[in-house]
Amino acid sequence: MTLHMTKTQKVLRFMGNNTVPILFLIICAFGIPLSGYSANYLVSEVVVRIARNSFLIVSLLIPILAGMGLNFGMTLGAMAGQIGLIFISDWGIAGIPGILLAMIISTPISILLGWWCGKILNLAKGREMVTSYIIGFFMNGIYQLIVLYGMGAIIPIRSNALVLPRGYGIRNTVNLIGIRKSLDNLLTVRIFGVPVPLVTFAVIALLCIFVLWFKKTKLGQDMRAVGQDMEVARAAGIRVEHTRIVSIVISTVFAGYGMILYLQNIGTLNTYNSHMQIGMFSVAALLVGGATVAKANIRNVFLGVILFHLMFIVSPMAGKNLIGQAQLGEYFRVFVSYGVITISLVLYEVRKKRDQGLAGLVLAAEQEETV
Predict the structure, then answer these.
(1) Predicted TM-score of the model (pTM)
(2) I want to staple 75 with a disulfide (CB 3.0 to 4.6 A). Which of 20, 124, 136, 308 is the partner?
């Protein structure tokens, strides 16, 4: 006895495996006409958001490969990147040198925080996502303590434009005019009237190539083995705990770089809030692209950025044109961000149980054939 899937079953399975992307396609299909935006404007905005957010989202892929799920702890890297930006703003280093120096400063901080986070996650196997989420909140408190009370009082900050009037603590907003779009404007071409930052896309492409290459390395294969079965990997001589820590460290370092690229595009650092939602939005975008807790690839990253941020662009104006309240779109964006994560996690568990059931049926059928 063998189990074969009909065409209808295959279609239903495809729709079940891609529920979230299909849902967002439907939302965008309804929202775009309601928004009234032109195609040229939408394409321009999507290109900007691909350049701004893709690096951050790609940084999530390595921990998924190692079986650690969605790394909400990427906010630790974002905080490290922001600290680097505060220092280069104080020192007055602008342009590409400023961006590179901010990355250099963030690297050891990201490595230290990633190592610490990985050590804790090794104590919480099977609960990595919720643990990394809570670690992000904990480190946010430490970050705010350092930035609000340490900088200017203990850590020297010379610029009066950065320090609060009381003499210590960083202002709520840091002007990054010195590095604003330094990378994006390095080489920009217009394609059908749409500005495309070629250097930024080249940097993102290099990261994607690195991830694809890394998966084929010995360490990448070890991470894949650990992600599939930790006990089998340990029996094969793989240092499971060490491999998991390395995956988090790499993700945290890349998240720091991604945050710097993100903020150089915006040109303003919200000192106490910029990093707060970056992990949630990055995870949501990856899930919108069809990724799961256990499997994600480059295609999921870019499909997710396009669909998720297209919804972000059209929802305020669509809400205003629909009921006269643009605020509806703002609430809808936040609601969807959290909702898509919830739906994705529920669907992942449903598919996992379904696949286990199908595997049981196949095993039973094979046993019947041998009797």
Answers:
(1) 0.88
(2) 136
How far is it, in rounded angstroms, from Cα 184 to Cα 202? 11
Domain 39-370: CATH architecture, name and number where available: Orthogonal Bundle (1.10)
Q: Which residues of 326-340 are buried (b: 16+ CB within 10 A; e: fewer)?
A: eebbeebbeebbeeb
H helix or E strand, kind and range, residue 147: none
Instruction: Please report, for residues 81, 128, 176, the alpha-carbon distance to residue 99 in angstroms, rounded to integers and kept in the order given.
Output: 10, 31, 10
DSSP assignment string, 237-272: T--HHHHHHHHHHHHHHHHHHHHHHHHHHH-EEETT
Residue 1's pLDDT is 42
Per-residue pLDDT of 325-359, as tens digits, reads 656 666 766 676 677 777 777 776 777 676 666 65
Rounded Cα–Cα distance for residues 108 and 85 (Å): 14
Tokens describing residue 135: 């670690």
Question: How would residue 159 be classed by pLDDT, with cut points 50, 70 and 90?
Answer: confident
161-175 mean pLDDT = 90
| Lookup: tokens for 369 | 């054939």
Q: How many CB atoms lie within 10 A of CB 291?
A: 27
**151 beta partners:** 155
Please say whether the beta carbons of 126 and 293 come within 8 A: no
Q: Are 184 and 50 contacting, i.e. CB atoms less than 8 angstroms apart?
A: no
DSSP 175: E
Q: CA 247, CA 261: separation in Å to the nearest integer?
A: 21
Question: Burial of 223 by CB count in 10 Å (0-12 exposed, 13-18 middle, 19+ buried)?
Answer: buried
195: β partners: 190
Mean pLDDT of the chain: 86
Q: Where are the domains of the chain?
A: 39-370
* Residue with the larger pLDDT of the pair 18 and 145: 145
| b/e map 18-36, b = 16+ CB within 10 Å | ebbbebbeebbeebbebbe
pLDDT tens digits, 123-151: 988 888 889 999 999 999 999 999 999 99
Would you call 166 exposed, middle or buried from its count of C-beta atoms within 10 A (0-12, 13-18, 19+)?
Answer: exposed
Name the helix (H) or strand (E) containing 166: none
